[in-house]
Amino acid sequence: MSDTLSAPALAPVDHPCGHPSCPGAAAGYVRLLAAHTSSHPLLTPAGESFVRGLLQVSEGGEALPAPSGPPAPRWDGDARCLWLGDRLLKVFRQHAPYQTALLAAFEEGGWAAGYVDDPLPPERGDGPDDARKRLRETVHNLNQGLPPGTIRFRGNGTGEGVRWEWSEADPADRSPAQQDKLRT
User: Fold this and answer.
1) What whole-number distance in Å separates Cα of residue 80 and Cα of residue 4?
2) Could you tell me the residue ranges of all domains in the chain?
């Protein structure tokens, strides 16, 4: 595996050493931060913070402002918590192996992709319809209790994968049929 980035926008900066305060380092940090977007993340939140700190050190001034925009979801498997930025969306206090497997797949595959193939293990004697039904029920259960205006999970229509999306901010924005369904 190469130690240099191959993308033209992220070509290595020619400077004498790798020290953060070395002349030319700031240009590399700026290019890395410019290439790091919510639709194509290159850094974890901690990594982005670290690079911004390096930029601040290398320029001897203020760090760049944090990018605006909605935060990506994240799954903390050890604590069994689903987060959206600093907002706790859901805590799993009971055993929920299918839901947690789905969230782990999103965390591993990167939320930016917005989609994962069905990560649920097959059960003995299952046919394709059983696996699709289990995935559909898992998505339904995962959406239970998620606050409005955050995120929702949806099947891809084939029963073979799941995507996540931003949900509407206000329950009043729902159609009457959706509101009735939620009441039952």
Assistant:
1) 36
2) 8-59, 73-183
Q: Report CA-CA distances (Å) from 180 to 74, 136, 148, 167.
A: 31, 21, 16, 17
d(CA 29, CA 20): 9
Distances (CA, A) of 177 to 135, 147, 183: 24, 19, 10
User: Contact, 57 vs 20, CB < 8 A?
Assistant: yes
User: Using H for helix, E for strand and C for coil, what is the string for 162-184?
Assistant: EEEEECCCCHHHCCHHHHHHHHC
Can you name the residues that pair with 100 across neighbouring β-strands? none
| Confidence (pTM) | 0.57
Taking only the tens place, the pLDDT of each residue in 141-173 is: 999 999 999 999 999 988 899 999 998 765 555
Place of tokens 């699709």: 132
Interatomic CA distance for residues 42 and 95, integer angstroms: 33
Q: Is the pLDDT of residue 95 over 50?
A: yes
Look-up of token digits 């990560």 = 119
